[in-house]
Design goal:
- The complex is a heterotrimer of chains A (337), B (430) and C (263).
- Chain A has 337 residues and is mainly alpha-helical.
- Chain A has helices spanning 2-25, 32-50, 52-78, 83-105, 142-145, 161-183, 185-195, 197-202, 207-232, 239-254, 259-278, 283-289, 296-300, 302-305, 308-311, 315-326, and strands at 121-128, 132-137, 154-160.
- Among the domains of chain A are: 2-114 and 163-237, no CATH class; 117-161, no CATH class.
- Chain A has a three-stranded antiparallel sheet.
- The longest helix of chain A has 27 residues, at 52-78.
- The two termini of chain A are 31 Å apart.
- By secondary structure, chain B is mainly alpha-helical.
- Chain B has a two-stranded antiparallel ribbon. A two-stranded antiparallel ribbon of chain B has the order 3-4.
- In chain B, helix 2 packs parallel to helix 7 (170-191).
- Chain C is α/β, with parallel strands linked by helices and 263 residues long.
- Chain C folds into two domains: 1-84 and 205-263, Rossmann fold; 86-170, Rossmann fold, CATH 3.40.50.
- In chain C, the strands form two sheets. Chain C has a six-stranded mixed sheet, sandwiched between helices.
- Classes of the chains: A mainly alpha (337), B mainly alpha (430), C alpha/beta (263).
- Chains in contact: A-B, B-C.
- Chain B binds chain C through residues 2, 5-6, 8-10, 190-191, 193-199, 201-202, 204-206, 208-217, 219-220, 223, 227, 426, 428-430, and chain C through 56, 77-79, 82-83, 87-88, 94-100, 103, 106-108, 110-112, 115-126, 143-145, 147-149, 165-166, 168-169.
Chain lengths: 337, 430, 263
Amino acid sequence: MLNGLSYGLLLFMLSSGLTLIFSMMGVLNFAHASFYMLGAYIGYTLSGVLGFWPALVLAPLLTGALGALFERYCLRRVHPFGHVPELLITFGLTYVVLEVVQLLWGRIAVDFAPPPALQGPAFTLVNHSLEGLRWVWGAVPLTLCSAADASLRIVCSPFPATRGFMMLVALAMLLSLWLLLTRTRIGLVIQAALTHPDAVQALGHNVPRVFMLVFGAGAALAGLAGVIGGSTFLTEPAMAATVGSIVFVVVVVGGLGSLSGAFIASLLIGVVQTFAVALDYSVGSVLAAWGLGLSPAWQASSLGHLTIAQVAPILPYLLLVLILIFRPRGLLGTRDA
Amino acid sequence: MNAYSVHDARWGSPRVWFVAALVMAVAPWVFGSGLAITMLSQMGIAIIACLSYNMLLGQGGMLSFGHAVYTGLGAFVAIHALNNWSAAALPLPVSLVPLVGGVAGMGFAALFGYVTTRKSGTTFAMITLGLAELVFAMSLMVPEFFGGEGGVTGNRVVGTPVFGISFGPAIQVYYLIALYTLASVVLMYAFTQTPLGRLLNAVRDNPERVEFVGYNPHRVRYSAFIIAGFFAGISGGLGALNFEIVNAEVVGAARSGGYLLFTFLGGATFFFGPIVGAILMVLAFVLLSELTKAWLLYLGAVFMLMVMYAPGGIASLVMRNLQLARHGLLRPMLGAYSLLGLAFGLCALGVSALIEMVYHRQLNAAMGTQLRFLGGAVDTASPLHWCTLGAALLLAAAFFEWARKRFAIQWDAAQQSIEQARLQHAGEAP
Amino acid sequence: MSLPAPVPALELRGLRKSFGKTEIIRGVDLQVQAGERVAIIGPNGAGKSTLFNLISGRFAPSSGDVLLHGQSLLGKKPFEINRLGLSRSFQITNIFPKLSVFENLRCSVLWSLGYGYTFLRFLADLSDANAQAAGLMERIGLAHKRDVLAMDLTYAEQRALEVGITIGGGADVVLLDEPTAGMSASETTRFVALIREATQGKTLLTVEHDMGVVFGLADKIAVLVYGEVIAFDSPEAVRADPRVQEAYLGSAVADAQVTGQGH
């Protein structure tokens, strides 16, 4: 459950940046996951030179700067052509970033290790069949995890510190975003732009500069997620692709333009995916439990034999398609896509 | 300028089709090698796929990220049909297999298309993306249909040969593909000259206005989607015959991305643009990828430059220059063009040299530090070589900027005089 | 024996529209007989464009009904309404920018000639559609720009094209939303003649700010103020109505009379 939540929070870090960019500029940034990847790789290099904690601060800033540069020299040129060319240019960017990353860092995963402070478990849940659930800070020695008596069952679930840190950062980000949006002036401007972008423009804010800042900020948020995600999970060239499409699902399901929608959708999808992977029941048995029996031919076929774990990868996309059919605004969306 | 709007053409120019047919008939003899025939076959398949994609993108304003779903599913159904036909010894000719693919593509387009085409724009793009990921993810889950990891294989040499044609040799498959390609291109062109085709353009330009002239934009898009799915399925079926194997990659995101990239590169606003794009696609995948490991990088960069500076693609560049030529303004530009070309070439050389050097260090370090680049040897370990290349690149970039400014001035002047000529001509009012 | 009252071409019954908490149209009742030419005037923000959007199906009313020849338009989509014989133009020019003038007009006649969604015939062979489109081109005075892309026309020419597209389908109830907006005086005069000729025999509803145009075109004037119709009568009666003068006309009427553009 906690794993699901932490993954969901990581998705939220990414989708919040994407939502901001879309709301302010109407651009669905296809390359958002590429900035995630860049953040991870830059963080990896910097942490090798400066240590993890400085890298945690610098890598997102650098990523944000790259994002701002892209906006200034490429996206801005394409803006007058309409939304489709904007989408296309971010699409092209994904190819370029992927190849440059592979060019500079190679095609195999790199070992982006979390700092010593974050290695190991933050806490461990010990589930003793007799004594119930216990919470132990830090690691639990193995002896405590195995029972001498065969009738006892002790299950130790360590919760990695990196994931805990990820949740912390995500929550901190959520909090600071909320504060920024509701308490500061620039935050009010962005809030207004989330629902009424034209009015904001008409009010005379320096729109190109704001665009550049927002895009850069979105990229920086993605970069931050990258540093944390890369050190928690794998840092490899495929990381953009794996997480990229899920982030789109999150943003669309949650509702384009809604940060709270993105939050809910991220958690929903994070939990669903993590849970589904752990479930081993076959689709056939689940449907039977719900009273929808399958004919023997279907049961015997591979479709009926599929476990929920195997079906897990398509669940987000299924959700995306269903939402787009029945509720194109998404869960909490304020604008149509 | 828009090739669709000026004359009512019906089937198109018979001369053009004749020349095209001639070229396709003669090409294998001109190019000879087995590799050439493979590439020509792939070009035919790609042309049909990209043209069908442009029915959505260029003609309908629908940006799809999942066109490979329809080409790929058509391919799968086609190869299953092929296997079932040979197993059941049905007297149906192998040459009709692509039509089965077409019908399958049409069927899936009808199935998914109703919901997909309700809106255009970003919603449409997102649904196609979601569907594509869905279908690709399912490909691992239903091995009966998708053949699991290895895919589905087939054998096109079945049944009794008709007139000695067994479709065993690649050249015979090439001519079959060429026939289908010619027929498909002519049909797709004819489509642009029908009411539905024109209304599709109208929906692209202004869906609301289409409603107020009595048409339902959703139905226009849906109908076009199904027709595009038909041709996509034909392309997939031809691919199944050509390669005799179909695996999950044919419905993958990479392939959909490829259609998008190259159709746009070729030019979405002119009918022949995707044909150019399809040819480039095959050339890139087969030749360029052999030439350099960095080809995807070059591709992505070229694509981005195209979006920024020539969103109408190569076709629009060609047409604009033809327009210049018609007004007699092309010859004076040739000087500026050659300077620009030279500068661009130098820059490209410099950039690619640097990129190749980095790739070499990354991937081929075991082969030593020497890199053969365009006939010369470059030492990737030597800082001197790096620096000289870097300096050369900076110089070339400066040269390019200078040439570009000169070119831009001349180009703008030429455009202005064309504009004036047009206004004068249009201003002759009764 | 008395004849039953003729069914009005267009009737608005108790029409209301709110956006969120703001009620823009606050109960409009209007009956327009076939062949009448009605101008809707009113101060800015009175809800004129919203009214048009309600009639043409772009928005759904919060309550009330719109009846076309006695048939309710509630719940109908714009294209269904169009097929029943109602057509409209827009305040912001709404044409097909990348199609030529001829193609624009041809698109507007295709449905009414029954060609539907066919892809089995060539446009070049549709002689009636081509003839009608050519005729329309002549009537709106754009025959010399047959192959020019709509986005390359001048503003006045685009407005003319818009009117052409609006009447192309043969609709008998035509809504024109500020057709002469942004035009010079001479363009306006010519344009009014065009509208008069193009909408002969049809029922016309037009939103206008230019009083000269209004008095030149309209049989009756409806005055919309804050979402309600406060007067619906002949131009003279409206001009004399003290409520209208207070709410809206004021000096505009005097100007129109002075320059002799009035009836």
